[in-house]
Specification:
The complex is a heterotrimer.
Chain A: H1 3-43, H2 48-53, E1 57-58, E2 65-66, H3 69-100, H4 103-118, H5 121-140, H6 148-172, H7 176-184, H8 189-200, H9 202-218, H10 221-226, H11 244-252, H12 260-295
Antiparallel strand pairs in A: 1-2
Helix pairs in contact in A: 1-12, 3-6, 3-9, 4-6, 5-6, 6-9, 7-8, 9-12, 11-12
Chain B: E1 5-16, E2 19-30, E3 34-38, H1 45-52, E4 62-70, E5 73-74, H2 82-88, E6 89-92, H3 103-113, H4 121-131, H5 135-138, H6 151-163, E7 169-173, H7 181-194, E8 199-203, H8 207-213, E9 216-221, E10 224-230, H9 231-236, H10 241-247
Parallel strand pairs in B: 3-8, 3-9, 6-7, 7-8
Antiparallel strand pairs in B: 1-2, 1-4, 4-5, 9-10
Chain C: H1 2-36, H2 42-46, E1 49-50, E2 55-56, H3 59-90, H4 95-109, H5 112-126, H6 133-157, H7 161-169, H8 174-203, H9 231-241, H10 245-280
Antiparallel strand pairs in C: 1-2
The chains are: A mainly alpha, B alpha/beta, C mainly alpha.
Chain lengths: ~300, ~250, ~280
């Protein structure tokens, strides 16, 4: 092939590659624009204040009401519960892997965690119905165990692999010299872990937690299947709740396109998008902090 | 020995980010001679070498000033094909970097992309392997992956890959630094032999190597050319005190 | 006495959390395998559902998931690989590159249901593709894109600069050096990332809910403009929406087990590629 032609091809390829890079921006921009457009369409019909402060989500009632609060509180409740379980377990497991487990044990545990991460959310939701639900029901005496607690436990299982992997990286990245200094003044392994290693890895652990939160807030199928989906205002862990994601999943399949209800679902999706964006940005901030610290 | 200038750099300054790595370099390399560039680590000798075949084009934070020329061709002029520059100025790297392909393909690849007629290629491959003293060792296993060769063989394959394209200049960036003495001796012998067809610039840390192979030697320090003279003068009658200290092994 | 006991207690706390995590996995696998295995048969994976889903097999769901995953790969792999090449081989460290990278990281964090909405607005309605295999495949392709970019770029980053320089130094253009030298060396790493991403996509449900999946298709044609069945959605429907839930529970277990097997097989493939490659080096 002639040189001029080869260089022309090279140049075109460079343009093609660059275009795909720009398209990535367009996709995120497109998602953002789609949510914004439909949210604006929604706010032309419903007052933003009613949306933000309304305590009732009942789009199909005779007098439709579009209050996001019950959905938002449900989402937060389930996520909070999931984190209450996943954070201690995740950090504990990460610490075990990074500080105590030998190479052989690590070679068994790590693939197990990867396997746990690979289980599809719909399968975990299914087990929430057939295993965890009846279990909770028999403990509490409720007719069924499809409630916030069930969702929280399942979400913790889904968030755990993320939290463990990122937190272990963080703990592992703490310089050996820090630990040696601690041993040098007579601290035990446990004291070193609690007083030196974990504080030193704090930004990385926080990043792990934020990533776990992001995963839990945005999860759909598990909560859709396991939390019962009652649209009343959530009363607690032992009551059925309906998260933002579950609401979209249930209602989008049934609503006619381009109605107020349809736009309302995009509006709650926009809220969800902003929350996950914020959570991810905070997580990223901590990751960067941790990297800088590691590089220093 | 002709004194015709083959390769030259004039008023060259080079920065990586805000750090100036080359300062006011003026240097020229005569045709069909071997010039060694010596100096302590970080003195800029590899950076200078890599500037000649525009290897810094891919580092976005490198900024280059000054004029580089091959014969009378301005190597950094606008519109010049960098691909063509590189096929005229071959390069051998510090660590042997054969392609993850067969021995034959390692040399044939350059011929194929540079549009050498298909019928000529097997002959050129054989010739290049003979020129690099590798033919007798590999002629029966040309289809073997190049990565299975020993370190010294890999480096000779890389030299064969460079000479197969019949460049005018071969740049060598510490070609023996990762090799054992036996392989080093073979490659040095090869370098000296290649002199009659090519202009060679070799960066080395090894002062014996410079003395054994080079006609001229350049001593660089902190991004500047301190002294440039015949190898004999540099090692036996250095004019500059820094050069004298370095060749006596007092630093670096 | 206390001195000996405390370290044991402390160590035990960590061991207990690790044990709990393992316990979760064991429960999941044990329950699905022990209750799902009796439903598995050649008939189950090779026939259509019968009698209002209460009998018969899940063949259309398997076909749907396989086709959907293939379309996802066809959409996301070329796009993602090109983008990763741009970022690792061409892009300078400037504001544009930083924006692209930030977008990729944020795309990876966007909830899957929002991809579903985007697919609905863009492909189903905007581009008039309707609820169809192609709409769902494109949606899942977008969802998979950031993961493919990230894993491909990691694979490219592991190829040393000297490999690229070797090709450039003999007069290859940058494209030739990438195509002939860099990509062939990076293939195992890229393949591992691709297969892992696809195993995730195969199990996704939320993004396909409104873009093309259907509860029942008696004639899985495989046409791109048709609706389709898929394993994860089939499991969801059987376990929550069917009118005879208790009666179809064995079928739901069987579907869950097949889904898990598909996903784990893809994962095993990825690990095998990674393992084989690490041995080769």
């Amino acid at each position: 092939m002639k040189l001029a032609l080869r260089e022309k091809i090279d140049h075109s390829a460079r343009l093609l590659f660059r275009t795909t890079g720009l398209l990535v921006i367009a996709i995120l921009g497109g998602i953002f624009f789609m949510l914004l457009w439909n949210t604006v369409a929604f706010f032309l019909k419903v007052k933003p204040m009613d949306f933000i402060t309304g305590t009732q989500w009942n789009p199909s009632g005779s007098k439709a009401s579009y209050g996001i609060l019950p959905l938002l509180v449900s989402t937060c409740l389930v996520t909070l519960g999931a984190m209450a379980i996943a954070i201690p377990l995740g950090i504990g497991t990460a610490a075990f892997l990074s500080e105590y487990a030998g190479k052989k044990l690590k070679n068994i545990l790590k693939p197990m965690i990867e396997m746990l991460a690979a289980v599809p959310s719909v399968a975990i939701g299914f087990l929430g119905i057939v295993v965890l639900g009846p279990g909770i029901a028999s403990l509490t005496g409720e007719p069924n165990g499809l409630n916030a607690l069930n969702g929280a436990i399942l979400l913790s299982v889904m968030a755990l692999p993320t939290i463990i992997t990122v937190a272990e990286d963080a703990l592992h990245g703490v310089p050996q010299t820090y630990k040696e200094a601690s041993y040098g003044v007579g601290a035990s392994k446990w004291q070193t872990l609690i007083k030196v290693t974990i504080p030193a890895a704090a930004p990385g652990i926080l990043a792990a937690v934020m990533l776990g939160v992001g995963r839990a807030i945005g999860e759909t199928m598990t909560v859709l299947m396991a939390t019962g989906n009652a649209s009343a205002f959530p009363k607690g862990f032992f009551h059925s709740v309906r998260t933002i994601t579950a609401t979209i999943a249930i209602e989008m399949g049934e609503v006619p396109y381009q109605t107020t209800h349809y736009y309302a679902l995009f509006a709650i999706a926009a809220v969800l998008f902003l929350i996950t964006l914020a959570v991810n940005l905070i997580g990223e901030h901590f990751v960067n902090k941790f990297r800088k610290y590691q590089a220093a | 020995m002709s004194d015709q200038i083959k390769l030259s750099a004039k008023d060259v300054n080079l920065w990586f980010g805000s750090k100036q790595v080359l300062k006011h370099i003026n240097i020229s390399f005569p045709k069909n001679e071997i010039t060694a560039m010596i100096g302590p680590s970080g003195c800029g000798k590899s950076t200078l070498l890599r500037s000649f075949n525009r290897m810094h084009d891919l580092s976005p934070d490198a900024r280059i000033e000054g004029k580089f020329a091959l014969d009378n061709l301005d190597l950094y002029q606008k519109g010049l094909s960098v691909t063509q520059v590189r096929s005229r100025i071959g390069m051998v790297f510090q660590k042997a970097n054969p392609f993850p392909k067969s021995i034959y393909e390692n040399i044939n690849y350059g011929l194929a992309i540079n549009d050498v007629p298909k019928a000529d290629r097997p002959g050129i491959v054989e010739n290049a392997l003979r020129e690099s003293y590798l033919w007798d060792e590999v002629k029966d296993e040309l289809q073997k992956p190049a990565t299975r060769l020993s370190g010294g063989q890999q480096q000779r394959l890389c030299i064969a890959r460079a000479v197969a394209l019949r460049p005018e200049v071969i740049l060598m960036d510490e070609p023996c630094s990762a090799l054992d003495p036996v392989s080093t001796a073979k490659i040095e012998e090869l370098i000296v032999k290649l002199k009659k067809d090519y202009t060679i610039v070799i960066v080395t840390h090894n002062m014996q190597q410079a003395q054994r192979t080079a006609d001229k030697t350049v001593f660089m320090y902190l991004g500047e050319v301190i002294e440039h003279d015949t190898t004999d003068n540099i090692f036996n009658h250095p004019k500059n005190e820094l050069t004298a200290n370095y060749v006596k092994g007092h630093f670096g | 006495m206390m001195k000996k006991l405390t370290p044991l207690l402390e160590w035990g706390t960590l061991l207990l959390s690790t044990g709990a995590v393992c316990f979760f996995l064991v429960v999941i696998l044990w329950d699905l395998i022990s209750k799902g295995a009796p439903s598995l048969s050649w008939e189950f994976v090779s026939t259509l559902p019968r009698a209002g889903m209460t009998k018969g097999g899940i063949l259309p769901a398997i076909i749907g998931t396989v086709l959907l995953t293939m379309i996802t790969a066809l959409v996301a792999a070329p796009f993602g690989i090109c983008c990763a090449i741009y970022l690792n081989e061409y892009a300078a460290d400037n504001w544009l590159t930083r924006i692209i990278r930030a977008c990729i990281r944020n795309l990876a964090g966007v909830p899957s249901i929002i991809y579903g909405l985007f697919g609905l607005a863009l492909f189903v309605q905007g581009l008039h593709m309707g609820t169809s295999l192609i709409s769902a495949g494109l949606t899942l392709g977008l969802l998979s894109l950031p993961y493919i970019i990230i894993t491909t770029e990691e694979a490219l980053r592991r190829i040393p600069a000297s490999t690229r320089e070797a090709a450039l130094a003999i007069g290859a253009t940058q494209l030739e050096s990438i195509r002939d030298v860099v990509l062939p060396s990076a293939v195992p790493g890229m393949l591992t990332g691709l297969v892992l991403t696809l195993s995730r996509a195969a199990g996704e449900t939320a993004p396909i809910l409104f873009t093309g999946v259907a509860f029942y298709i008696n004639n899985p044609s495989g046409y791109l403009n048709q609706e389709f069945m898929s394993l994860p959605y089939h499991l969801y429907m059987l376990s929550t929406q069917h009118q005879a839930i208790e009666q179809v529970r064995p079928l739901a277990y069987g579907t869950a087990l097949v889904l898990i097997i598909v996903v784990f097989l893809l994962n095993l493939t990825a690990f095998y590629i990674r393992y084989k490659h690490s041995k080769d080096e």
